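User: Before I run my own analysis I want an independent prediction to cross-check against. Here's the chain; please return only the structure tokens and, at the end, one sentence I can use as a sanity check.
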Amino acid sequence: MRLIPIVCALALLTSCGSDEFGFSQFRCDIVESFAWNDFDRQHDLQQCWNIESTSSQSEALDICLARVIRYAEDRYVFDSNGEPPHTIIYQVSEGLCAG
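Assistant: Structure tokens:
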């Protein structure tokens, strides 16, 4: 398995619900992109995935990471070491994506 330098922003997890409060709907957003060009940065920042019916925030983070990795692998050409062309920062928060 190759390692992908994608950074997870956990700050919003402390403000959203946990298992004790029964929250089960989360969203996964790309919140920062270090792409070289503006078009790729803007496209990255528009990504949002709903994560519904999860049993925990930890599970939501795992699902979010998998979706961000799949997005990056589908969209960008990785170098010969399996590294993406830029870093993406994502977050998990309570609620669903708009639209």
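Sanity check: The helical segments are 38-45, 57-75.
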